[in-house]
Amino acid sequence: MLENTSTYNALHPNCQHCMLYCFCLQAANANKPQTLVHKKRQLKPKELLYSCRDKFSNIYAIKAGAVKTFGIDMEGKEHIHHFYLAGEMMGFEAVHAGCYPFSAISMSAETEVCEIRYEHLLEAIFSHPDLHRKILSFISQRFNFGLYVTAPHAVQRLASFLLELEQRLHAETSCSEFTLCMSRQDIGNYLGLATETVSRIFTRLQRDRIISVSNRKVKVLALEKLRWIAQG
Amino acid sequence: MLENTSTYNALHPNCQHCMLYCFCLQAANANKPQTLVHKKRQLKPKELLYSCRDKFSNIYAIKAGAVKTFGIDMEGKEHIHHFYLAGEMMGFEAVHAGCYPFSAISMSAETEVCEIRYEHLLEAIFSHPDLHRKILSFISQRFNFGLYVTAPHAVQRLASFLLELEQRLHAETSCSEFTLCMSRQDIGNYLGLATETVSRIFTRLQRDRIISVSNRKVKVLALEKLRWIAQG
DNA sequence: CGGTAGGTTGATTGAGATCAATGGCCGTGG
DNA sequence: CCACGGCCATTGATCTCAATCAACCTACCG
Q1: Range 179-198, chain A: CB under 7 Å to any strand D atom
Q2: Percent of chain B with pLDDT over 70
Q3: CA–CA separation, A143 vs B17, rounded Å?
Q4: CA B45 to CA A218: how far, in whole Å?
Q5: How many Cβ atoms from other residues are within 10 Å of residue B127's Cβ?
Q6: Is any atom of strand D within 7 angstroms of residue A217's beta carbon?
């Protein structure tokens, strides 16, 4: 039970972008036992957070790293549902059915998540109207992600994807450089494109001096052009 | 102010599938002034419910008919975001930004919506824990809609779309017959397909005795086959 | 070292976009 | 009443973009 530590370090730098930061900080300052975060989990790359059809009981806040949710179709092929990045929360899509509709695995060496019992979260919401607004706001934002996956051209999808990623990674550095946390195959899968197509488009965008790519390092060289491409 | 009638007829047959039914019924029985539904609106086909970028203040419950949300791109082409059917609620995607990210128009001759102030809804949620669960559950369900729009083959997308529609129209008749509330163009737009492709696939599915189509009337003849196709 | 996973590049193929023409339906107006 | 135009749907012909198949390269790891 020591895991549910009463001295949860809400001041960890990775927490600063978390939606629950204020809440945790408040609890920590008041020396209240931490009731919201049930436990923290450190995940190795490709380590499963939960499986498709597991009974739903937890929401997870990604403290560091990244997590992807996916399902396996009848032919054994993977279908990616969403990527969750540091500072985001995941698990809400399981509320309705009472079980997780997808499996979730870590995509990074330093993934760390805070496990939050959904029931506790509901209680917390009742005593913290602010938290309620924040959570609804966050959920609302999710509806506006990935709207480009049906764009008519592959390059539009990829450009939009990169722009969204850059936003969500809230590039502290403002220099428009970031590291993809997923493989080309994952990107293609998410965007409804073949791996080879993703690779070719990266090459083309680089040739045209719109981005530079080296492995998973991406740098946006011409933001406006990229936006233009994303729009078609 | 008579619009905010205190004798809102919660017993209207169209209300029975509404998420807020119990809540409204309760309020009606207690002879409480109806605080949740701010006003009701009757919409003609193609009548605008709200415009993209309008300030967000209302959630809408679709009492009858159907509504689509869409945006217009730089070339003037329409991009459909979602279809909302009778019994569903819409507007949550605007919470985060504080304005509607899409325009919403009626798709049916008998569209009727209940306008609910978001602030009132938040208040109501606080006094009705049940309502809170229901709303989060509904929002959660939304995340599981439209997951098929990146399926590799057009026929998979359309099959999945039809299956989802049939579910959501909660076919009272269980005879798997329903009426599409949208044009072929809307379907194609939503699924990332050309109108002609949608039409051709309908024809093929009919030829193969999997569905029968006549204008916007669709009847599922071979549910299992359709499911099989949807999976690939 | 060799093995494997991830990534790139080229050649070929195919599904669906696009272009074009036609027919049905409906509301409008002569 | 019918004629007309607009919208929607269907069908055919052609073209194009991205999938597929295949080879190769690189980095990483036991």
Answers
A1: 188, 192-194, 196-197
A2: 88
A3: 23
A4: 46
A5: 8
A6: no
